[in-house]
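--- STAGE predict ---
source: upstream dedup step, 1 unique chain passed
mode: sequence only
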Amino acid sequence: MSPSASSSGPLRGARTGQFQIAIVALVGTFLVLAVGALRVAAPLLVPIAVAWLLSQLFAPMVRGLCRFRIRPPIAAAIAVFGFTTITLAGVVLLATPAAAWVARAPETLSRVERKVRNLIQPIQRLERAAQKVEAATGGGAAQTVAVQKPGMVQRLSGTTASMTGAGLSVIFLTYFLLAYAPLFRSKLADLLPKRVERAKVEGALQEIEVQMSRYLLLNTVVSVMVGLATWLVLLAIGMPNAALWAVLAGVLNFIPYLGAVVTIIVIGLAALVSFDTLREPMLAVGGFAVINMLEGNLLTPLLLGAKLPLNPVALFVGFLFWSWVWGIPGAILAVPMTVLIKVACDRIEATRSFALLLDN
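--- STAGE serialize ---
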């Protein structure tokens, strides 16, 4: 064997290693730039993501209307603008009590503080008595315990004009995505040269749409049931503005982990202000805790089951990532966006190994 032939093996291996390192560096650079672009372009991308998810939610309704020979643009208008009308009617009904609570926020916090202080007075008296006994027996200098008041008020950013503009953008973009979805799929498939690849792309897009529509619909049903159960519990104990807190519980149910905690805190504070005794606040908080436990251990597994293709680790990491990238909207969109990534990676051969990491 010649020296050149014997040295070609190590040389080829070194070049292969360098090529692999270059590929890893290129992919890492692309991911860093992509995450940075997601954060910087959040005002543009969040409305697009919300509109796309809403279009997947309304897609079965539009297809059902099209079976009655209704054209897709008209069916999309019925779905989107009908939902918008119902939502605006609900906002109008709940706007008055919500505005009243916001206006009374300083007074409400003061009343909660006084009630909490009354609750901890017996504990403080026991601490003072123990300090006196320790000082009388020469046990050392008494330590001063300072109770810091936790901050409970969170300011919402954004003006009414910007929120209205973002809402209108989401509404009309959802309409166009629903009205012309078949055209978009056909145009995207036309970019591929081969007929076989075109059929694969159309099939993959249709499967992603079906799976996302099913998941979003079932998740919405679960949140509506949580809101209704919360309304019945609060109504039974005589909680003022029970519908307002029930709607809040249903909306926050879309946020994994953190949504239930925030709902318990808000309902507990509202009950402390609304009632003079501790019986009703404990019933309100305990009732919602039971509802949340039944939802997480019975209702969601029963309705979603294997239709939620995410393991708990992937779900939690996705929640942390999208919350960090897009803030509160990202926390609400975390699960649907992670499910979308999982479903899309299942259809691409090169990313199927990554989809296995997310699978349940």
